Amino acid sequence: MSQSTIHLDPHGEQILREYRSLLPVYTKMEEVIPGKIKEFFDQAGIIVAAMEHRVKTESSLAGKLELKGGKYKSILDITDILGLRVITFYIDDVDKVASVIERLFDIDWEQSVDKRKIHEIDSFGYLSLHYICSIPESTYSDPAYPELNKIRFEVQMRTVLQHAWANMNHDTGYKSGVEVPKEYLRNLSRLAGMLELADEQFSRIRTELNDYRRRIQALVASGNLGEVPLDGDSFRSYMELQPFSRLTKRMAAVNQAEIQPVSLMPYLAVFKGLGFKTLEDIEKLIGEYSEAAYQIACYQIGLTDLDIISESIAPQDLCIAFVLKNGGGKNGLKHLFDMINGESESNEILAEMLVGQASDFPFMNQ
């Protein structure tokens, strides 16, 4: 609808003039508020999918005033001239976002609405939380814009799936009042139920994963490693204990070398590839093969002038010792080096060389 086809009464025209005079204030608020929200999100460790904001255009406001301008005494009664939308990944993050908004702004509770609480089982409107806010001077003020702390604005909070539903619902024409045939309404309702269930399940899965990580961390810290399956979370917690540190330092002492820190997370796939199932399997590897790994390291660097060695030398040589001692031979070593370095012809050469040297390792003759 173009503004030229809109007919406003004198009261509507007066509100439109107020809008024009306050537009610089709304623009300033749109510049300031998202930054303040993001700053608080960062402090609270909240990660959101997106944050949108807009100032209602004059033509959009004129259309609203034509339909229901009599509801408003002045421009200050219209609370959605400035609107922000915070889109979260998970349902429970909506409440975390709301907590930040409550601390940051003054909330008009009478005008705010939680559509999650009034959502009926047979309806298919989107679920979201809407706060009508204003900026307290303790959060921000600017003498050049004295009206800034009086103007209210809207913050909508909802999940990615709720946002997808709202957009899809809008595109069907339902929101604009176009009648939708019953068979399509039924399908829309089914889809809304699926999205709502998916939202709940995503949050549930995240909660269960967090509980699992805490349980694994507790088991690792207590030393009950036989009960801990070998996976990304458990291995990461195990690495925090620096299980290879003692062996690495012993190896470095051969040349009085400096130890270069590196991530040992890639060795998770290596250990799993060797058939290890629990963290206790790695503990046994360290306990039973550290001497053999040290012998390999002495052979590798003992006659060199290397003064820097990688932190990965300990798990690497432990795995080499494990393969050799258990009869893996050349093929077993090549498979190991393929896992560590990626597949390459040089891995076969290295494996063949190590097999040739194996008879010189004392542990192979025991």
Helix content: 55-70%
The radius of gyration is 32 Å
Mean pLDDT across residues: 88
Beta-strand portion reads 5-15%
Q: What is the CATH class designation of the largest domain? A: Alpha Beta
Strand elements, count: 8
CATH topology of the largest domain: Beta Polymerase, domain 2
Largest sheet entry: 6 strands, mixed
Using the alpha-carbon principal axes, give the shape.
elongated
Secondary-structure blueprint:
Blueprint lengths: L9 H35 L5 E6 L2 H11 L13 E7 L2 H14 L1 E2 L5 E2 H4 L10 E6 L18 E7 H12 L10 H41 L9 H8 L5 H8 L5 E3 L6 H7 L5 H23 L6 E3 L2 H13 L3 H13 L3 H13 L9
Parallel strand pairs: 2-6, 7-8
Antiparallel strand pairs: 1-2, 3-5, 4-5, 5-6
Helix pairs in contact: 1-2, 1-3, 5-6, 6-7, 10-11, 11-12, 12-13
Q: Could you walk me through the main structural features you see in this protein, from its secondary elements to its overall organization?
A:
- The chain is 55% helix and 10% strand.
- The chain is an alpha/beta fold and 366 residues long.
- The chain folds into two domains: 3-176, 2-Layer Sandwich (Beta Polymerase, domain 2), CATH 3.30.460; 239-365, no CATH class.
- The strands form two sheets. Strands 1, 2, 3, 4, 5 and 6 form a six-stranded mixed beta sheet that branches. It has a two-stranded parallel sheet with strand order 7-8.
- Helix 1 (10-44) packs across helix 2 (58-68) and helix 10 packs across helix 11 (313-325).
